[in-house]
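Appendix B. One record, verbatim.
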Amino acid sequence: MTKTSQPPLGKKENERLEFKSRDVLRNRESIARGVVAFLNTSQGGSLWIGVGETDGVASAIEPVAHAEQEAGALFDYLVDAIEPPPEGRDVVIRSVPVTQGNVMCIDVRGGRMRPYAVRRGVARSYVVRVGARVRALTAEEIAKFFSERARPGRVRSSHVADELQAAQKTGAPELWIALEPEPPLKVDDDAVPRVRLERLLRDPTETGNRSMGWNLTSSYSRVTPAQGERRFGGPDDYHRTIVRDTGTIVFRAPLARLARLQGPSDEIFPYALCEYPASVCRFARQLFRETTTPVDDRSIFATLALLGVRGWKLRPHSPRSVGFEMAEPHVYDELDHIVVGPLAASWDALDGAPDRIAMRLVADVYRAFNHWDEALPAEYDRRAGVLALPA
């Protein structure tokens, strides 16, 4: 998409161009709606903020105060408000200098993970740009997009779903995380030798994880072969990881691994809840980078489950924040399990910001505990998509 360096005064709104006054910054959902409408097209478009229009024609400049700061805050909002979250190169917000100050331009590339939606609590609003207007996607269009996103090999997600269902039936309290590339990858012993796989699973620094922390690595476990997969850790280990020859990764640990080290045994410690899925996503990124199969066209499906979690508690915000201990923990008492996903992401998203995919899962767990997204620990930088816990 060609980026315009100056506001297109005199031009008319069309299928790739929309104008909004600066007052729209008070109603960010309206902006998200416009961005989603462009994402759900093949060609994308540009949404200008601070450009007034008359009968659809750009007619006035309305400078935006503190445009750079507004751009950063708006991007954070869009990442949280749009599902699946847009990748950095899919949505670029620019501060554009004009004579009177600055206006803003949101350059949107047609998304590769359609359909995109604006989140409204538990509801989703699917819209698309047609000419100079925005309309709702039909049920048939939504179904078609999901079908295209899933790809022919999607049946393997049914296998993962069956495995999760079997785990639920055991009644054992458990943290369960799965990442599945579609179409499948070749991640057998020929593609990623056992010695290398074992190193990735034993040395956290190989995958960008902390030396100490809540992650999938273990310096004591070993890789053992099984039909169609390799296993790391056994029944006596405190967590287990399965790497299938198709690239699917399944991580399992007792739910007690999420409990506060010094506190109630049924209260989730935020750092543990955030870091375990982040470590799995970081491991997946490095593993997929080293496979001999091209990964550029892959989709990644991520699932997180807390099994036997009814009655557990979760406090908001960072454990290092003022008032964390005084905050009232929310109790989850709706169902026996919390299951999030499968959430879809592209390979570019996993390669560029694995923590962002993990925190999408974690954010939905927080919502299950009736916490807003603002309750996520401040150690997660939403704009950068990076979780940085204290050493």
